[in-house]
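Annotated sample (chain length 490).
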Amino acid sequence: MKNTRTKTEIMKSITINMTVSAVMILALLFSLHPGANAQKPGSGKHEGKLCNVTSFSMNKICKEWDGQWQGIQVASDGKCYFGTSTHSIGHGAGFHVYDPETKEHTMIAENMTVICGEEDSGSQQGKIHSPIVELDGWLYFTTHLSNYWPEGIEVYPGAHVIGYEMTTGRFRDFGIVKPRYSIYSAIGVDPERKVLYTFVAPFHEDLIKNDGCHLYSIDIVSGEKKDLGQLTHGHKGFVPRFYVDNHGNCWFSLLKRHWQYENDPGNLYCYNPDQGRIITYEDVLPKGELIDGTPVIDENKHNQRSWTWAGALPGREQCLFTMGTWGGGDERLWLFDPSKNMNKGRAFDPIAHIGSTYLETAIGGERLYFVQNRDLEIQRTETTTIIRNEDPDTVGYNSNLHLRSISIKEGADRSITDHGKIVDQNGRAARMINSLTADDQGRVYMMGSWYVKSDTEASFQVLLSKYPGKRIYKLVKRGEFFAVAETKGK
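Output written by the structure step:
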């Protein structure tokens, strides 16, 4: 593994880490007694079919990386680029690349706060929560607020749009899009107009109360930022993905799991660059069905309908999307064709029943890959971001995340392939995967939280929920790993 940090970056990192060590810290190390039904990493044989992956520990580089949501992409050079995020008060997100030919991981940048020139700001650019998009040899992504407590929100300067040129390794900082606002979290690119789109969201109570979320464009050539319109009033908001079609229209929906918006029971939005306005298609998203065809009849679920994942097909004339438990309960894979009648439902074509999915979904060649719990009822009702925090020595080492896939080739058999339980070369099993991408060679890449074999692999996490307003850290019984699965021919 290469470390590309300069001496200056290392010294800045040392300074930041010293600051963290000065705050109030609670470090709970690992106990070695076995838990009920426990199968510790490497201690025995996992049952059932396995999806064997090769993993790389991220916490051996930086203990404060404690999760990753989105922020991963296979680029045109065949390499996988990904982020490592944190809620630390003294460290920012990392940015990395993996070369499947050499099987080598390289850290490009350890701290995005430093890349953004804000290491003395008292705040952190702690997350790369957005998708990563590409145009003309450049990758583009955004930073995101990670210090969710009031003091952190108060001093947060705002989220940045960042470019990274793959051939030279240089960054381009487009700067803060809207001061004091984060980007949560979509970014999209219009390759013909050379324009990026981002979804800007407030977290400060005054900004939430008096304003809301906005859609912005960034001209790649000039760097000019433009407010394209306000989308929420008196609410936060979350848009996981944009779909920019072949005419440059930017399509999206608002995730409503946590926030209910007036006059949005299942809307689809479209920014039309020729008209220069956001068009709202009211209540057009499909009502849900479970994997067995059972209709979702819960009215609250109907009001939560939204895309949780979307991916353009080649040519960008159509896209695939999923909704899942977080998007109204639908468990199907859909094809969206914006050239067809929206209000009559002809623009939406169900492809297959696949079960509930979320961010951990990706197109790779002619297949769609997704991570699910083996038990689809657990997938439907539990959130891995929460249950990954349970003590495995108490509840057992029972995480059972599977990699699955389905053909998206026209006319193909839609049977689901279960590649097996995700287990690495040392017997560790995945506990949370919210970051997934794939290539056309059957390689599937993921970032997430795993069981660990020792405290050297473990994350150092601030206990924000348990001790609000305090700076207490814990060495948790999980760690952050990047992993790759080779599914071709399996």
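Annotation: The chain is about 10% helix and 35% strand.
Annotation: Confidence is low (pLDDT under 50) at residues 1-38.
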